Structures are given as structure tokens and as C-alpha cells.
Amino acid sequence: MQRLIDRLRRERTLPPADLRLLLEACHDDATTLSYLNAQAREVAQAHFGRGIFIRGLIEVSNCCRNNCYYCGIRKGNTHVERYRLSTEQVLGCCRQGYALGFRTFVMQGGEDPAQTDDWVERTVAAIRREYPDCAITLSLGEKSREAYERFFRAGANRYLLRHETHDATHYAQLHPAGMTISHRLQCQRQLKEIGYQTGTGIMVGSPGQTLDHILEDIFYIEELQPEMIGIGPFLPHHDTPFASCPPGTVEQTVALLSIFRLMHPAALIPSTTALATLAPDGRERGILAGANVVMPNLSPVEDRKKYELYNNKAALGAESAEGLSALRRQLQAIGYDISFARGDFKM
Ligand code: 5AD
């Protein structure tokens, strides 16, 4: 297995059959997994040093027109107390974040029809005007090409839109009729064409996911060459159809993080909140597997618990913007530190 991992590092790819062997080995062989993580960590350090980029996450709305079976803020969940931020509130989050040292703001939200394309465009423009030195990332789901173009012209630089799973049948197991993988992929192509630094990704261990699905995702991502890759474990949410499905594992998540790092040395790869929620040392394990980004929460404190995508979603302590000193201590304990750079994708 070590020879396979060395080859993956050298050639930045492997034939599907070898990748399958590697993923299977990581499942029950701790030595293989830790060797894989160590190689990926070296590649990340060669590219980024020991600085971890921070992104201030602003959850702009938990209203959503979609009804994805895994997601806690799905339209069908009547137990959610819904909120949406105003432009002024978003700017307030940015002001707080800027003072703390954040130079990337991420506007993430459900597909909220009341936050119209005009609203997004105006809000992005307002952030751009006040913070010409900051990167603006959007994570607002599927929009029209025209909308993506308007947001880009208003000053957005990056867009996160995970494809979740490349397999059409599996996609349909996770999403209701009307949502299709082909539309999701079309959106991703448009984002790239427009010039966004584009992020994709998957949930690890989502219901119905097989090793074949994961292999297909790996090769799709190899073809797309995204600038950002978001990989987190699936975690159940109690008010969804997947309430009693088992979560993804830390091991499978960090194995995949490392594979993506070896295949995409320059990619921006977060150690996700979902991984930090799954295990107390999840964030650290993600970084030690080759992740180089964390996204602390900058949302108004009173709304944070309402943005519950899965059970017990972490939003305090080192997951929060106010907890930056706790985050710094955690990173320093494993030999890393916060980087306050804007952290754009660079080959
Ligand atoms: N478990 C883990 N991740 C989830 N997401 C949504 N619901 C869940 C869940 N139950 C992820 C999706 C989405 C991102 C914003 O959050 O992958 O793209």
C-alpha cells in the first residue's frame, strides 16, 4: 500500500482499481491510513507551509426552497425557526470579522427566494465597496447563469457548490424529484467559465453511498480541477428522513481528504465543521490529513443554532470567529498557526 500511496503522490492519480484498493485498505488498516495522511500533510506543507487560512462564514438565511433529504434546513422541516439576514446585518458580520483579521467572507445560505438575485448583487457590491482587499465567497446554491455573472461583476470571487454525488441514481436518493445532478454540474461549469474560483465536494458516508460512487466522485473532481474541495462526513439530522441513518466516519473522511490533497496539491481544502462536530479532535485530524482551511462562524450568535444542517452542529469555541484564540491554540498544539492572508488559489 505504501508504494501505491507513493505513486499517487508522484503521479497525482491512480487507476480506479488501485484507488479502490487504497480506500479499502484505509478502512481496516490504521498503518496505511496514517501513512496516507502523512504524505498528504507533507504535500500541503510544501505548498502552504504551516499556515491555515481562515474564512469567516456568514449564514445569511436558513430559508430554503429545496427539500434535500439529508439537510436540517430543508423546506419540509417545520420545526426550524426561520431567519434571514439583512444587508446591514451581513455588513455588521463583516465588520466584526475584519477587526478580528478575516480577509475572506463566505455568504452561505439556503436557496431563499426572498433573498433575490438583486439582493445578493447589492449585498456583494456593498461588501466589495467597504472591503476592497477581501475575498468574497458565495455558497447560495443553484442560480441562473445570469445571476452568477451579476454576482461576479458585483465583486464575488469564489463560489462553493458541492455536487454531493456524481452518480445520478445516488443523487436521486439524496434529493427529491426536480433536483438533478446534470443541473448541478451545469452550474459548476458555468461558475468556472465565468471566472470564479470554484468549489465542489461531497458528504462522506451519505445514505446509499458506495465505494463505486466515491471513485466516480474522485474522477469527476479530477476532471473538473476545482480550486476548492469540501469534504465532510454525513451527519444525521433528527428532523429529516435520514434521522436514523449512521454518520460517516472520521477515518473515511480523512482518507479522502488525503487522497484529494495528493491529487490536487494546490487546492484549498477545508477541515470542515462537520468533521469537527463528529469528533472532538476532528478539526486537527483534518489538518493532519492535508486540509489547509478552516471556516469559523461569523453569523450573529442568536441565529447560529437555527442553521442546523445536522445534529449538534458546532458553532461555538474554535468553530466561532470570537473563538479565534482557541482555534489558534488548537492549531499551535499540532504545529500549525492561523494565516491571515486572503489565501487565493495559486498553482
Ligand atoms: N451532514 C453533513 N453535511 C451536510 N450538509 C448538508 N446537510 C448535511 C448533513 N446532514 C452539507 C452539504 C452542503 C453543505 C453546505 O453542507 O454537503 O453542500
Briefly summarize what is shown:
By secondary structure, the chain is an alpha/beta fold. It has 14 helices and 9 strands. Helix 2 (16-28) crosses helix 9 (211-224).
Helix content: 40-55%
Q: H/E element string?
A: HHHEEHEHEHEHHEHEHHHEHHE
Task: Give the full name of the CATH homologous superfamily.
Answer: Aldolase class I
How would you sum up the global shape?
globular
Average of pLDDT: 97
CATH third-level topology: TIM Barrel
In total, how many beta strands?
9
Q: What ranges have pLDDT less than 50 throughout 5 or more consecutive residues?
A: none
Question: How many discrete domains?
Answer: 1
SSE class: alpha/beta
Count of runs of 4 or more consecutive helical residues: 14
Overall description:
- The chain has 347 residues and is an alpha/beta fold.
- The chain has a single domain, classed as TIM Barrel, CATH 3.20.20.70.
- The chain contains 14 helices and 9 strands.
- The chain has helices at residues 2-11, 16-28, 30-48, 87-100, 117-130, 145-154, 168-174, 181-194, 211-224, 250-263, 273-278, 282-288, 301-304, 324-333; strands at residues 51-54, 56-61, 104-109, 135-139, 158-160, 197-204, 228-233, 293-294, 337-339.
- The strands form 2 sheets. The protein has a 6-stranded parallel sheet. Strands 8-1-9 form a 3-stranded parallel sheet.
- Helix 6 (145-154) runs parallel beside helix 8.
- The longest helix is centred in the first third of the chain and has 19 residues, at 30-48.
- The two termini are 28 Å apart.
- 47% of the residues are buried.
- The chain binds 5'-deoxyadenosine (5AD).
